[in-house]
Design a protein that fits this description.
heterodimer; A: 114 residues; mainly beta; 5-stranded antiparallel beta sheet; B: 115 residues; 4-stranded antiparallel beta sheet; globular
Chain lengths: 114, 115
């Protein structure tokens, strides 16, 4: 069935290094993707999104890359900080008939080591 | 308010009891969503409201689950005859419209524990 999954459940990085969190999706009809950050005990927080007609989008310290050929999405965090420690989820949706009903992946725990 | 507000933040209930969870969306947001998140897992879609359209209930796991929304304001998620497997965080979110591209904002969640 349709699914959105992540390659690694836990990612540990040194403070100041760049982080790369990966996500695979199986539904080729997906046309909109979002990355969320969830800190312990809190709701998911929007980080960045990308439409399927784009390959790359940059925000503040974050970049999302989309490879539709292999159905792969990644989130790059530059100069990772302790405050970046959280679980990161990718989510996908389809414009046609999907509204904003998002399908979420399991999540990747990012741990920033001092 | 400035964000999506949910209540109660924590609820412990006995198996078999009914619970009601409340969500106040961001003012002006016409779309409202409920998701469930079990410990250490991703978010499961439950139900989606958009304006006066019929809600998308395709994610409700059983007939013990129901939700209502009054106009474009408050929503209540009701779980009848709670079971231990219902223990989870129930997250509410809202957005400006159902058209893809609008950012969805989540509340802090209602933590439900069924004992």
């Amino acid at each position: 069935g349709e699914s959105v999954g992540l390659h690694l459940p836990t990612l540990s990085v040194q403070e100041g290094d760049n982080s790369i969190i990966n996500c695979a999706y199986s539904n080729s009809a997906s046309d909109y993707f979002i990355w969320y950050k969830q800190e312990s005990g809190k709701g998911p927080q929007f980080i960045i999104d990308i439409r399927s007609n784009m390959d790359k989008r940059q925000g503040q310290r974050v970049t999302v890359l989309l490879n539709k050929t292999v159905k792969h999405l990644s989130l790059q965090i530059a100069a990772t900080q302790p405050g970046d420690s959280a679980v990161y989820f990718c989510a996908e949706t389809r414009v046609t008939g999907g509204g904003n009903k998002l399908t979420f992946g399991t999540g990747t725990q990012l741990k920033v080591e001092l | 308010g400035a964000g999506v507000s949910q209540s109660p933040s924590n609820k412990v209930t006995e198996k078999g009891k009914d619970v009601e969870l409340r969500c106040d969306p961001i003012s002006g947001h016409t779309a409202l969503y409920w998701y469930r998140q079990r410990l250490g897992q991703g978010l499961e879609f439950l139900i989606y409201f958009q304006g006066n359209s019929a809600p998308d209930k395709s994610g409700l796991p059983s007939d013990r689950f129901s939700a209502e929304r009054t106009g474009e304001s408050v929503s209540t998620l009701t779980i009848q005859r709670t079971q231990q497997e219902d223990s989870a965080v129930y997250l509410c979110a809202s957005s400006l419209a159902w058209i893809s591209g609008n950012t969805i904002y989540f509340g802090e969640g209602s933590w439900l524990t069924v004992v």
